[in-house]
Amino acid sequence: MARHVYLITHPDVLIDPAVPVPEWPLSPRGRERMRAALRQPWMAGVRALFSSTERKAVDGAAILAEALNLPVTELEDLGENDRSSTGYLPKLEFEAMADAFFARPQESVRGWERAIDAQRRIVAAMEEVLRRAPAEGDVAVVSHGGVGALYLCYLQGRPIGRDADQPPTNGGNHYAFDAQVRRLLHGWRSIDGA
Predict the structure, then answer these.
(1) Residue 13, SS3?
(2) pTM for the full model?
């Protein structure tokens, strides 16, 4: 039977300009949405959990781990693209920067990690996930929107582009691929069926 990998983006976070972005926690709504994900039929097949080391992803993975009685393996390379050069940006400025990040993948936009470098790192991290995961059962990876978009471009063998980004729902989406042949099974869907 084919093993499936579910790449899950953390849902809603508590945005605080005074706190470094990687340390933002899930908001109460984000926690509620992660709990709702547990009601999805596919969640019953998950036998391994991985997450980035950023707090919002760790928070999300911890909710799944407690309910599924599974440990979580944290991998730093599953983290979002390095945006520390700018830190927090107001929403409109951030969206413009994200557009530039995806549109010019070979360039470092205002000091951000280049999209091609982030994609290379993420592909290697996902290979590490599959090396470490048990041979039986599905795998869930709790990560970030940019990570999901860059990996989706890789899976589909297409150029990096923001058109691969998750729907604008404050995160909390997932897609699935076949672990054996790295073939996309379905595109972005909400974790909570909303």
Answers:
(1) strand
(2) 0.97
User: Sign of torsion, CA 188 192 193 194?
Assistant: negative
Largest alpha-carbon pair distance within the chain? 48
Are the beta carbons of 157 and 175 closer than 8 angstroms?
A: no
Measure CA 64 to chain center. 15
Residue 112's CB is within 10 A of a number of other CB atoms, namely 20
Closest by alpha carbon to 150, among 117, 189, 173?
117
Residue 100 CB-half CA count within 13 A? 14
Main-chain phi, psi angles of 165, to 5 degrees: -65, 155
**What's the CA gap between 146 and 48, in Å, rounded?**
22
Tell me the residue type at 118: A
163, 24 in Cβ contact below 8 A? Answer: no
Instruction: Please write the tens of the pLDDT for every residue from 161-194.
Output: 999 999 999 999 999 999 999 999 999 999 997 5
Cβ-based neighbour number of residue 31 at 10 Å = 17
